Amino acid sequence: MTAVITGIGIAAPNGIGTETYWEAVLSGTSGLGPITRFDASDYPVKVAGEVAEFCASGYVPGRLAVQTDRWTHLALHAADLALADAQLRPAELPEFEMAVMTASSSGGTEFGQEEIQRLWSRGPEHVTAYQSIAWFYAATTGQLSIRHGMRGACGVICTEQAGGLDAIGRSRSMLDGRTRLVLTGGTDASLCPYGVLAQATNGLLSSSPDPTLAYLPFDVRANGYVPGEGGAILVVEDAVKAAARGAPQGYASVSGYGATFDARRTSRSVAEARAASRLRLAAELAMEDAGTQPAEVDVVFADASGDPVADLVEADAITALFGPYGVPVTAPKIMTGRLNAGGAALDIATAALAMRDSTIPAVTGIKDLAPGCQIDLVTGTSRPGAIRTALVLARGHGGFNAAMVLHAGVEPLERRTDQHVQVHH
């Protein structure tokens, strides 16, 4: 069985819609800016990646809009885009053969905050009944399932930034049974006072008020990360069944997946962080699952924490796998901020687009790599070249590690010649 991505739907700070977003990435257009969704003057975070052009009334039916949080609104619209991209009409397929598996990080934070404010300021009679479901981690999965009549196995993965890969990896395994397709990926929207303060407890958010300096992973000036909202929803199908229904050619195959957990809490010392990290093992598991050797990987989409210690640990893992400066590395999330449950799903979508157009997108704003970061970070301008294999890395706060391998096309790849490998190594 080959799992193929046939549809992509994106709602990101630097673009709504696949092509709009991709054009922004290739042009280096950032979606980071001062927080406008609330008055952040008294908060430790001043910059975020907001999907400023998104308004629920323009994309989500009114009945659904009042019942759900912005996090779900973004997913509902991204799912519509993904289904249209896959030329898929769910009503024409057996409802129990379609599933939904999304990632969630904080759930309906803003909806919950507003309901609590009503409770304390006006009394319990002013709290809507939708509070019981809109905040819930599985709300997006449930609403997508109901809206599109997808009644197969459904679920939600809660592993923060790693969640997108975990959800897609789970979706791939579901295709081995009766399920023919899965609506998967993730979004997030925690840019409200409660959501931002909850994230700030990890001590890793950047306090810089300058959008050009606030999120600089792997750079000597790295000082934390910028939160963002949005993400991507994907249609992942069994390739044979997708072809049978006349689906368009897929973007890429989901060929390998691996996950590990850093169970031991460490200090902020580099030595202890290096010893505890199992990110490299997650990548090795994904490549083994895909039948892929390190020399076959054309690009790595990095997790890019923005925390100097975590960045060095990731750079160590990449260098251990591919050698110093041995493979091109990119991190388009520098232009969106870290989207929690939506981040890794958006990276998968971006990697698929990079494969389609044979272009590795460049990161913006990075000038000097931090000492010890021996990686070939693609900066300045995008780097052209055929991409047959991509490795995507993700780490969630609390110790979650995930890795995923994408292959171009839907057929198993032939092993490369030594001459091809030497182009990159």
UniProtKB/TrEMBL annotation:
GO molecular function, one term: 3-oxoacyl-[acyl-carrier-protein] synthase activity
Keyword Protein transport: no
InterPro entries named among the record's database cross-references: Beta-ketoacyl_synthase (IPR000794), Ketoacyl_synth_C (IPR014031), Ketoacyl_synth_N (IPR014030), PKS_Beta-ketoAc_synthase_dom (IPR020841), Thiolase-like (IPR016039)
Sorted UniProt keywords: Acyltransferase, Transferase
Keyword match Acyltransferase: yes
PROSITE patterns, per database record: KS3_2
Record-annotated Ketosynthase family 3 (KS3) domain positions: 1-408
GO BP term (any one): fatty acid biosynthetic process
CDD domains listed in its UniProt record: CLF
Similarity comment: family membership: Belongs to the thiolase-like superfamily. Beta-ketoacyl-ACP synthases family.
Listed name of the protein: Act minimal PKS chain-length factor (CLF/KS beta)
